[in-house]
Design a protein that fits this description.
Blueprint: H1 3-14, H2 16-20, E1 22-26, E2 31-36, H3 39-47, H4 49-60, E3 67-72
Parallel strand pairs: 2-3
Antiparallel strand pairs: 1-2
Helix pairs in contact: 1-4
Length: 77
């Protein structure tokens, strides 16, 4: 799956606000790494984890997306 297709599916699955505050990367093992802009967005993605994963799997297929891993950006400094 292309990075563009993943980004589009992510935007559809999570909506505009979460999409703007996160970046996503699909690993070869089917894990989507989600990097959150800050702790509040990280918490929101984790809270909605099950719904987001289900939506992504519906959009691109469970064979491509198997799980989500939520990360946070390193502190700027």
């Amino acid at each position: 799956m292309s990075p563009g297709k993943l980004r589009l599916a992510w935007r559809v699955a999570v909506g505009f606000a979460i999409d703007r505050a996160t970046t996503v990367n699909l690993l070869d093992n089917g894990t989507v790494e989600v990097t959150a802009e800050d702790l509040a967005w990280r918490r929101e993605v984790r809270r909605s984890h099950a719904v987001i994963l289900s939506r992504l799997q519906d959009l691109v297929g469970a064979a491509f997306v198997k799980k989500l891993k939520v990360l946070s950006r390193p502190a700027k400094g």
